[in-house]
Structure formats: C-alpha cells, structure tokens
C-alpha cells in the first residue's frame, strides 16, 4: 500500500466506505465498471486507472495525453471511449490495453459520452457542443443548434433519441428524424 492508509468509514445500517490507494494524486472525474471485477477511473492530466478485482486495487494505465478526462464509456467489452478537455477523445479497440487519439479539431471541453451500440455515439460539452458519430468514431459531426450552455451529462435510449443536461437546470431533448 506504499504507506497509504486504508480507512473504513462505518455508516448507520451497516453501510461502509473504504478508501483504496490508487498510486495517483490526480483528481478523478469518471468511473465505470464493466462487470463485477473490471473497472476504470479517469481524471486530470491524462490519468487513467484500471482495476481487475472489483476496485480493491487500481493500476495506472498510460493514456498518452495530458488532457483532463471527464467521462469514460465502453459500448462493449473491447471498445471504449474517453472524453476530455480541448476536444480530447480517446478510443480503445482492445479492452483498454492501448488508447488511440481520436480528438476533435474543435477545442471544446467534452464532458459526457453515450453510445447505443459500437457505431452510434454522442458526446456533449461546453458552449452547447453536441457531436454524433454513426461510424464508430471515425467521424464526429456537430448535431443541430443547441443553447450556448455547458452540458455535463447525456443519455440515449436508442441511436436517435436522448437528452443532455447542463447549466442552470437545462435539459434538452435530442432527436434524429
């Protein structure tokens, strides 16, 4: 544990939290579990962590960038995406062993990703950014005119209908004809 202390935070009704050393001091903004054992965390300065034991231990994984990451998704066990500041988009095709830079040319912070299958995905961010891919991320196109607000989350029930949420209580519905 490299001198880091594991703390047990007991709560009423038997619930508890346990701090887990990660080997990183970076701020973490996103976490995702693919199943009971395999998970990812991502954050500042290109920080990418992986666990194979349900979060008991975490290992630093090389991302190849110093961008700050805000979201991570895996539409299937081998294909994953990370979104971050200044248009940063990373993709893995091998379950996270190697990450490829698929960043947008626009220097907009990308805060949330949603994929409905391995080909159809959405990413949202600041200044009303909404981008869509229908070819597995080879191309990303701006979608529609949205309010000039920052979006922090997005979810899609299928490849054509979803929502984005953001500043000042805004919720926009996104629909593809």
Short characterization:
This protein has 177 residues and is an all-beta fold. The protein has one domain (26-175): Methylamine Dehydrogenase, Chain H, CATH 2.130.10.
Characterization of the model:
- This protein has 177 residues and is an all-beta fold.
- The protein has one domain (26-175): Methylamine Dehydrogenase, Chain H.
- 0% of the residues lie in helices and 41% in strands.
- It has a 4-stranded antiparallel β-sheet with strand order 3-4-5-6, with no helix packed on it.
- The chain starts with 7 loop residues before the first strand and ends with a strand.
- The model has no long low-confidence stretch (mean pLDDT 91).
Largest sheet: 4 strands, antiparallel
Poorly predicted runs of 5 or more residues: none
Distance between the first and last residues' Cα: 53 Å
Average pLDDT value? Answer: 91
Number of helices: 0
What is the C-alpha radius of gyration, as a whole number of Å? 17 Å
Percentage of residues in strands = 35-45%
Which homologous superfamily in CATH is the superfamily?
YVTN repeat-like/Quinoprotein amine dehydrogenase
Q: Describe the oligomeric state of these chains in a short phrase.
A: single chain
Tell me the CATH architecture. 7 Propeller
Q: What class, by secondary structure content?
A: mainly beta
Anisotropy-based shape: globular
CATH fold assignment: Methylamine Dehydrogenase, Chain H
The figure for the number of domains is 1
- Total strand count, please? 17
Helix content: under 10%
């Amino acid at each position: 544990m490299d001198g880091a202390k594991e703390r047990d935070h007991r709560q009423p009704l038997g619930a508890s939290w346990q701090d887990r050393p990660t080997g990183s001091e970076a701020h973490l903004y996103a976490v995702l579990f693919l199943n009971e054992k395999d998970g990812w965390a991502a954050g500042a300065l290109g920080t990418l962590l992986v666990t194979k034991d349900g979060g008991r231990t975490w290992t630093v994984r090389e991302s190849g960038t110093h961008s700050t990451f805000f979201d991570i998704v895996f539409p299937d066990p081998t294909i994953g995406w990370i979104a971050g500041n200044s248009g940063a988009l990373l993709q893995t095709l091998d379950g996270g062993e190697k990450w490829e830079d698929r960043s947008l040319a626009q220097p907009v912070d990308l805060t949330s990703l949603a994929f409905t299958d391995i080909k159809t995905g959405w990413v949202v961010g600041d200044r009303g950014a909404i981008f869509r891919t229908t070819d597995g991320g080879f191309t990303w196109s701006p979608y529609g005119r949205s309010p000039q607000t920052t979006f922090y989350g997005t979810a899609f029930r299928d490849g054509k209908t979803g929502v984005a949420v953001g500043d000042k209580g805004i919720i926009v519905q996104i629909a593809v004809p």
